[in-house]
Specification:
This protein is mostly helical. It has two domains: about 5-120, no CATH class; about 125-410, no CATH class. The protein is built from 16 helices and five strands. The chain has helices at about 5-25, 30-45, 85-100, 105-115, 125-140, 145-165, 170-190, 200-210, 215-225, 225-260, 270-290, 295-320, 325-345, 350-360, 365-375, 380-410, and strands spanning about 50-55, 55-60, 70-75, 425, 430. The protein has a three-stranded antiparallel beta sheet with strand order 1-2-3, covered by helices on one side. A two-stranded antiparallel ribbon has the order 4-5. A hairpin with a 3-residue loop joins β1 (about 50-55) and β2 (about 55-60). The radius of gyration is 22 Å and the shape is elongated. About 55% of the residues are buried.
Length: about 425
């Protein structure tokens, strides 16, 4: 049904922009957001619509012809913490709209409810979930029960600090505070006679702080031809990572002044028993991260399975002496492929499974080792460079895995794979049925 009245036109554009806002803020790539917004406008009867996506702003315009000015609507993108429950609801709303099972007015009401609704999960349970992420990551790093408990405390503290400063303090300073807090917990453990490796506590904290950085969306934008948005996202990720490094470096300075020895992790050969524990820890960390981001239980369980598989593949490839970067790349390709295949039956966008599954593989260990070496006056630049290479390998590997999964799902046709939004034919703006 064609739409011509100005009120209906702007109502449709506003609906598409609200959907795009939630998708982009959740970590969706610019290509996915643009394709979804255009599909929404097409489903609502608008033709001749152009979209523009940047890191902080979305715009849509409908062209009528030379004799009539275009209708243009712009929306600022709000920074918000990851909320997979909202993302799943938006994904379902878009699919209902494209299938014709809901009207535009009903869709506008639903998107307003999604945007304004309170979280169904208690805030204390979210904090506990973040603590579980920290404790599970400690197991993945090879820590014991004491280290896991201390990492649990540090992760809960990081969440509480981030919640108390969110919206009032720039993300850079939030990351500094989180990194400093995690290191202080390790300093406190080192100052006592507790049988624990403080370096693992710091490393788990670094990984948690890295998990909130939108590197996946930045790499997706860079690979799909959105250099401006990719540059903005990469700069944002770089600033957030720099904040983590600054916070941990400040904590290491406190440790040095107080005479506390935090140690330095030196990874060695992984036996079958230790590798099994690390794989289990990765699965638990992925599930806990999903719960911390308000994912439903079915999605958290699926993320746990994908995360455990990714960790097992990482350990297997690393055992071949191919290096951490190649091991991370191969594991990421597997995670991208598995997530694409599982997302449909679980009824969630692939992003909801990919990000939690990648969290245990983030290069927190390399960052900590590099900073520890620099604090001792040695050359830690190579370790920090290795951390950057691993992060890029993870993001690029996941995107490649999504491409490789396309023939499995689409009868041999290789299409641009969305991490959020319905699977669309980019040129025709139609859904695959």
């Amino acid at each position: 049904m064609a739409v011509s009245a100005p009120r209906e036109v702007y109502g449709t554009l506003d609906l598409a922009l609200r959907i795009g806002d939630l998708l982009l803020a959740s970590g969706g790539g610019a290509a996915d957001v643009e394709a979804t917004m255009l599909a929404v406008t097409h489903a609502c009867g608008l033709s001749g619509v152009d979209a523009d996506v940047t890191f902080t702003e979305l715009s849509l315009q409908q062209r009528y012809g030379i004799g009539r000015p275009a209708s243009i609507l712009v929306r600022r993108v709000k920074r918000r913490p990851a909320d997979y429950a909202e993302l799943i609801e938006v994904d379902r709303l878009v699919q209902d709209l494209l299938d014709g099972t809901t009207t535009r007015d009903e869709a506008r009401r639903r998107i307003a409810d999604i945007d304004s609704s309170e979280h169904r999960r208690a805030r204390w349970l979210v904090t506990v979930s973040w603590g579980a992420v920290g404790g599970s990551l400690a197991v993945t790093l090879g820590g014991g029960a004491v280290v896991s408990c201390l990492a649990f405390v540090a992760a809960c503290g990081i969440d509480l600090v981030g919640r108390s400063t969110r919206g009032r303090v720039p993300l850079f300073y939030q990351q500094i505070a989180g990194g400093f807090l995690a290191t202080l917990v390790a300093v406190g453990a080192a100052a006592t006679e507790v049988d624990a490796d403080p370096s693992l506590i710091v490393t788990a904290g670094i990984i948690i702080l890295l998990a909130g950085i939108g590197l996946m969306g930045a790499m997706a934008d860079a690979l799909t031809g959105y250099p401006l948005t990719a540059s903005a996202r990469l700069l944002d990720a770089l600033m957030a990572t720099t904040g983590v490094i600054a916070g941990v470096a400040a904590g290491l300075t406190v440790a040095e002044l107080s005479g506390a020895d935090l140690g330095r992790v030196e990874p060695g050969a992984t036996g079958l028993a230790q590798g099994s524990a690390m794989t289990l820890g990765a699965g638990l960390a992925a599930a806990a991260y999903g719960l911390a981001c308000y994912a439903p239980l079915r999605a958290a369980a699926a993320a746990a399975a994908v995360g455990a598989c990714g960790q097992a593949i990482f350990l297997a490839v690393e055992g071949l002496s191919l290096g951490q970067t190649w091991a991370a790349a191969v594991a990421a390709v597997a995670i991208g492929t598995l997530s694409h295949g599982i997302a449909g039956p679980v009824r969630v966008p692939p992003l909801v499974l990919i990000v939690p599954a990648v969290v245990p593989l983030l290069p927190g260990l390399s960052i900590y080792r590099g900073l520890a070496l620099l604090a001792e006056g040695e050359d830690g630049v190579l370790d920090l460079a290795a951390a950057g290479a691993t992060a890029v390998a993870l993001a690029a590997g996941v995107i490649l895995g999504q491409y490789l999964a396309q023939p499995i799902r689409r009868d041999g046709l290789l299409t641009s794979p969305p991490l959020v939004g319905p699977l669309l034919r980019r040129q025709g703006r139609r859904t695959w049925n």
